[in-house]
Write a structure and sequence with these properties.
It comes from Aurantibacter aestuarii. With about 260 residues, the protein is α/β, with parallel strands linked by helices. The chain folds into two domains: about 160 residues, Rossmann fold (3-Layer(aba) Sandwich); about 100 residues, Hypothetical Protein, Haloacid Dehalogenase-like Hydrolase, Chain: A, domain 2 (2-Layer Sandwich). About 30% of the residues lie in helices and about 25% in strands. Strands 5-4-3-2-1-12-13-14 form an eight-stranded mixed β-sheet, sandwiched between helices. A six-stranded mixed β-sheet has the order 8-7-6-9-11-10, with no helix packed on it. Helix 3 links the parallel strand 2 and strand 3.
Length: about 260
């Protein structure tokens, strides 16, 4: 079936999807990408990570792909900004006030050019090395002068259990996503991966029937809904498996590469 599919766009999440257990991209994927490029298939890396972090993981091909970062708030192709959905100033101030009242919650404020933190503990700092290796410490959020695209909230035990219930009420006004075991992300309502992928589809005249998407967590749901060929990883959250049309192997078993090999 896949060999007959007319795929023009392939989108993949990073953590828990394209990245393996060591947070690395396989050499097999880079080999497959050359064949995708030869077929003029556009590849998009869509993640909650920063643009810099995604680009470093895919450094060898970063000039040939579109990078969707901060859960869809930013999309960049060859240094050209395609999508930009920052948190509005008054909304940011209200969110900061709410976050300050949450126990054992550590916020990361993600701008386009820099990442900011206010407080931390040892577990938090160790995890930051992988996702946010460079950051600025501030004593007060008022010190942040650039627009913030995403607020990532960290809990050392479970973000879904200990943070999400306290911010769930924001869902009517903001995009609130449990993006991993330790993280809940908050951004403007349009700042999600589905919005960014819809923009890319429209810009390049690509239909959902010509789109393939891979994801594993709740922040991938909207973009999975933009593709006929939507794949949940074997390690995906149950809510993601319920939305996706197909299931592939886990990220540890190179589930993305498994399907791309069939396609090619």
């Amino acid at each position: 079936m896949l060999k007959q599919a007319n795929i023009k766009l392939i989108v993949s999440d990073m953590d828990g999807t394209l990245l393996n257990a060591d947070h690395e991209v396989s050499t097999k994927f880079f080999s497959l990408f050359k064949q995708l490029k030869a077929k003029n298939i556009l590849f998009v890396a869509a993640s909650g990570r920063t643009h810099k972090s995604i680009s470093e993981k895919l450094n060898a091909i970063k000039k040939d792909i579109i990078v969707v970062s901060e859960n869809g708030a930013i999309a960049i192709q060859k240094e050209k900004l395609l999508v930009s959905t920052p948190i509005l100033t008054h909304n940011f101030k209200n969110l900061v006030h709410l976050i300050s009242q949450l126990d054992n919650t550590f916020p990361v404020y993600c701008g386009r050019h820099q990442v900011y933190i206010k407080k931390s503990n040892e577990v938090f700092r160790s995890l930051l090395k992988e996702y946010y290796p460079e950051y600025v410490c501030v004593s007060d959020e008022a010190e942040i002068k650039e627009p913030i695209y995403k607020i990532a909230l960290f809990h050392s035990e479970s973000s879904e259990q200990f943070i999400y219930p306290h911010v769930k009420h924001l869902e009517n006004e903001f995009k609130v996503k449990v993006s991993a075991n330790h993280w809940v992300d908050i951004s403007e309502n349009l700042a999600h991966k589905g919005h960014a992928i819809s923009y890319i589809q429209e810009k390049f005249d690509i239909l959902p029937e010509e789109t393939m998407v891979f994801g594993d967590y709740k922040n991938d749901i909207e973009m999975l809904q933009r593709a006929k060929y939507s794949y949940a990883m074997a390690n995906a959250h149950p809510d993601v498996k319920a939305v996706a049309t197909y299931l592939t192997l886990s990220h540890k078993e190179q589930g993305v590469e498994h399907i791309l090999s069939q396609l090619i």
